[in-house]
Amino acid sequence: MRKHDESRRAFLVGAAVGAVAPTALVSDAHAQTHDQHAADAATTAQAHAHGGHGAFFNDDDAATVTAFAERLMPGAPGKPGARDAGVLNYIDLALSGAYADQQDFYRRGLAALDAYCRKAHGKPFAQLAAAQQDEVITALEQGKASNFSWPSGQAFFNTVRTHTMEGMFADPIYGGNKDFAGWRLIGFPGAQPAFSPADLASKEAYSSAAIIGLQASAKKG
User: The whole model's pTM is what?
Assistant: First the structure.
């Protein structure tokens, strides 16, 4: 893994560890739709059948979002990235539900992104080499990318980064954090029935019980 990838991963992982809890990365509006997502098994199955999308994104947009998220949270041997954690599936389902008001934001942002990439590099974002994708992402972050009006390049970057973090570290019931990849990455044990006084006083990572998430609880219900 390149040094650039390592620093980016360290930043996002550090931000997740610094949160009160990974599940708190999900917005209040998204959290309020927990029952809807838990009951909408058909939509989730459809999204998985299309390789992690199908609720909102078409194939081209899905490829772009997958590549973008992976550059934000790159995978490495033994360290899951955005692709491994199913971040695309999370964003796809969110945009068909709790984040439906951001659909036009994504449509316009993705169109502007590919227009900028074709102008600067002759190819859409998903077809660029990783180093070129990083250059584009940096230009977005710094507000230096042309072809953006609304949303601005910075607004688009910030939104996709936020949604990537949510897809990595929120409860798997929302469609991301596949197999608890994000939680395992930062050593978060998931929701537990109870912690003993000794557990709370210990400075060691909690590993005495299996991870229990909303997804697991829903299956038992």
Answer: 0.76
